[in-house]
Design a protein that fits this description.
Structural class: alpha/beta
Strand content: 15-25%
Number of helices: 21
Distance between the termini: 86 Å
Number of strands: 24
Helix content: 40-55%
Radius of gyration: 35 Å
Length: 649
């Protein structure tokens, strides 16, 4: 028994080594030589049989064997019969094989006829024998290919776990290519059993041996009969079809899978490399199109520059770091954050990627003026991306001094140092909560916006030659960021619920982290200074609907498998966020996803003393209500909601 197990282990090791050396597919030259060997064997057997039938030995055996091999070798090379993978032999491959055998026998006939005339011996020419050889040779090579395919599929079925039956969303020829690939590639783990059409008029037809189902109850019956629980579709289809198109599938309990695959759109559409199949994320159902960074437009901004990124360990700061280090040739990138562990994780991640840009992590607090001066004095940054901030609304209602000291005071310190040390560009990450703020966090960010915009205008007023270009970028919630509602819902769903929402009618604007950072880079590097940029956040999303979608995507039924509880608005929260104040308007830019807000300008000489006093009071940790009182005086539109500070209004 032990010896038998050892022998199996040795055989598996040998097989693994052979696969490593030869690859998963037989090389083309091996198939070519194998076909020629089959031709030689079949020719010899038929020649012997011919001698037996005619009861006499036919002359010119070696000449005709050479002619048969030469003509078939030429036509096989011409029609590329050896280019296909044997286990994936298709009707197209068999057509090539038939053409090669037929044209080879015709060439043989012509050459043998010419040879008979030249040597003046009619026995050199035979009309029927080349045709018989071509027919038998085609059937032999066809049989070999079919045997290889059957044996391989049988082997794969024994070696690979049983596949899951799936529907394929049909919207064009690419879906047929995908279905065909999945049928052939057993290792994918999925087996298409039918198409679900985008156009209901196609229902009832059959393509590539698979039925096209009608979008009615018949689909459910078919799915139950064939144990189908998933639908596969192209990633590109997500942006082209309305999002509610998929919601019915999720409501019916199907798992949605997106396929990313490279297609060769030559004479025949085919898969170039294995497709990647992933579960559809909530990011894919945002109701917005994907935004791609225009690297060429801004690459000169980063060429040979030192970039300082504050809050680098946070969701936004980390993604800005990734995009800068991957796409641009900076002199150095400084990562600044006071959170040691996530900063270390980001640093190790970049080291693992072996980015070409030198990266230096610094642990520091942006509200510490002494430490920040040391950083600027040593690093001498050319560009600053300021993402460091306290952002949790209810937490900042409890700690307004911390919000003002960091969000406003930290921004003021960095902005002042940027002018002193000749920074070319300062980009601040703001929030839609700064518009008509109803909480301390949003008000502190609005105060920071006011300060850097007025500081830029003061430079122009004083006639400064090399001004620092201060730019603000303002956007809504970011999916998957630290503190985002999406990770919270995922944890609650994993625990079996309940999922908690603050209010049934709360709506928010959402954007993915890469999208947000791409727009921050593009807007921040194309601004001339003093602008507040707004981003196209797509349609507003109702948080209650988001919770239901995420529960369905987890394969559960809302309100039955997992409950949704309303817990009430927290301190400082409001039902909806605004990207613009009522008195503000926008003007377009070259990018339809980026707008510029026309905001009220502030006189630096008037607001600077107020901001200085406010930050001083916050750093002294006076009573919270006094800090909020001064913040409301600076920003009259700041009206608290669901907060004890509403009494100050």
């Amino acid at each position: 028994m032990i010896r038998r197990m050892e022998m199996k282990k040795i055989v598996r090791n040998l097989e693994h080594r052979l696969r490593e050396k030869l690859g998963n597919y037989a090389p083309r030259w091996a198939i070519y030589l194998f076909d020629l060997a089959c031709t030689a064997v079949m020719f010899s057997l038929l020649w012997v049989l011919r001698d037996l039938v005619l009861e006499e030995r036919q002359p010119f055996f070696m000449c005709h064997l050479g002619l048969a091999l030469l003509t078939y070798a030429g036509t096989s090379y011409l029609f590329k019969t050896f280019h296909g993978v044997l286990r994936f032999s298709s009707a197209r491959d068999l057509g090539k094989l038939f053409c090669a055998c037929t044209s080879g026998s015709f060439a043989w006939l012509v050459i043998s006829a010419a040879g008979a005339l030249i040597i003046n011996d009619p026995r050199f020419f035979s009309f029927w024998f080349p045709l018989i050889v071509a027919t038998v040779m085609f059937l032999t090579l066809l049989t070999v290919r079919l045997i290889v395919r059957i044996v391989y599929e049988s082997y794969e079925q024994n070696e690979t776990a049983s596949r899951s039956n799936v529907f394929v969303l049909y919207s064009g020829p690419e879906a047929v290519t995908l279905a065909t690939y999945l049928v052939k590639n057993i290792a994918s783990g999925y087996k298409p059993v039918a198409f679900l059409p985008v156009d209901p008029g196609l229902a009832g037809n059959t393509i590539a041996g698979l039925p096209i189902l009608a979008p009615d109850n018949g689909v459910k019956v078919f799915a139950q009969k064939n144990n189908v629980t998933s639908i596969v579709m192209f990633a590109e289809q997500l942006d082209k079809l309305p999002k509610n198109f998929y919601e019915q599938f999720m409501t019916d309990g199907y798992e949605l899978l997106k396929v990313s695959m490279v297609l060769d759109s030559g004479k025949e559409t085919q898969v170039m490399g294995a497709p990647r199949i992933d579960k559809i994320n909530i990011d894919d159902l945002l109701g917005r199109n994907t935004i791609v960074l225009d690297k060429d437009r801004i690459k000169d901004t980063f060429e040979d520059q030192t970039v300082l990124i504050t809050g680098a360990a946070g969701s936004i700061g980390a993604e800005i770091t990734r995009q800068i280090t991957r796409h641009f040739r900076c002199r150095e990138v400084i990562l600044l954050d006071q959170a040691e562990t996530p900063l270390n994780d980001l640093w190790l991640e970049l080291q693992g990627e072996k980015v070409l840009v030198p990266v230096k992590p610094i642990i520091a607090n942006v509200a510490n003026p002494v430490k920040m001066r040391q950083v600027f004095d040593i690093a001498r940054p050319n560009i600053v991306f300021h993402a460091a901030a306290y952002k949790h609304v209810p937490m900042m209602e409890f700690h307004p001094s911390a919000a003002v000291a960091t969000n406003l005071g930290g921004t003021k310190i960095l902005a002042d140092l940027s002018i002193e040390y000749g920074v070319k560009r300062f980009v601040m990450i703001s929030t839609d909560k700064a518009v008509n703020p109803t909480n301390v966090m949003g008000a502190s960010k609005r105060a920071a916006e006011i300060y850097i915009q007025s500081l830029f205008l003061e430079q122009l007023r004083n006639g400064a030659k090399n001004t620092t270009q201060f730019v603000t970028t303002r956007f809504g919630n970011v999916l998957g960021s630290n503190g985002s509602v999406v990770p919270l819902f995922k944890r609650q769903i994993a625990r079996g619920g309940p999922v908690t929402v603050t209010h049934r009618n709360v709506i928010r604007y959402f954007m993915t982290i890469p999208e947000a950072c791409s727009l921050v880079l593009e807007a921040g590097c194309t601004g001339q200074g003093g602008e507040i940029y707004l981003f196209n956040m797509g349609d507003a999303v109702r948080i209650y609907d988001l919770a239901e979608k995420m529960i369905r995507m987890a394969g559960k039924e809302p309100h039955k498998d997992i409950k949704i509880l309303e817990i009430g608005l927290r301190e400082g929260e409001k039902l909806y966020e605004e990207l613009l104040a009522k008195t503000e308007e926008t003007r377009p830019t070259y990018n339809s996803n980026i707008l510029i807000a026309n905001v009220r300008p502030y006189d630096y000489r008037e607001i600077q003393p107020q901001i200085e006093d406010l930050v001083t009071q916050a750093n002294l940790y006076v009573y919270p209500i006094e800090v909020v009182r001064k913040l409301k005086k600076l920003i009259p539109e700041f009206k608290s909601q669901n907060s004890k500070y509403a009494q100050l209004d």
